Amino acid sequence: MNVLYCGDKNIEDGLIISVLSLLRNTTSPLNIYVMTMRCEAQGKLYEPLCSSFADFMDSLLKKYDPESSFSLFDITELFEKEVPVANMSTRFTPGCMVRLFADCIGQLPDRILYLDNDVVCRRDPEELYNIGMEDTEMAGVLDHYGKWFFRRNIFKMDYVNSGVLMLNLREIRRTRLFERARAMCSSKEMFMPDQSALNKLSQSKKLMPRRFNEQRKLHEDTVLQHFTTSFRFFPWIHTVTVKPWQTDKVHSVLRLYEYDSLLEEYQQIKDRYIEKLKGETQDE
Question: What's the whole-model pTM score?
Fold first, then answer.
């Protein structure tokens, strides 16, 4: 199974948890691909994931299956050639637009499952991974909130959430979907820029059942749970954002204990990685 993640150094925690959850629920070898970059936006510097982290994750994957792998691609130069200038000052970090450069990486396989780093796997996602993708650019699940407000056809819900996407990169290159989405992000400021561009420009997409990208509340049949921002209406209207690595909030705010064993393993692995980094620093 080929899986793609994207982002800067800040995705390390989520990446460990998400990959661990896949390892617990899949039987086939996992080829994890990560696109990262360095950039500065609104006075903040975003650093790329480092090779030490990639080596550590590759070793972790191979302990589960020697045929699994972890590959890291620094796309800083590509990003600098097509900076999404119109959306560099929005509330969304530049890292969310990194996935739009996937068509530029020749080493990526044609069939690949894209996951945000706050997606946790609960059941084997093979059914999603193996869906027919002929003449289809991408497959995803309707966005929980966006499906009501953003749609090209007022009579049909078709606005997908970009946190879980089954991608056909061969078709995407043919239709130039990502290339056109990058151009739109450069010239037009948008709410959730990469997601909005993909929904507006996609010529062929499949809608999948909610269980493959549960954005609201865990259900018995949930395959992939996406820890997105949600609205709460009591005792006042407010938003709630809790990420998987925020263990205390997962318990106290979400009242969710489903992943306790997973989060304990994540903490142990993170501690090992920190010790590894300390050892490398001392050797220098």
Answer: 0.92
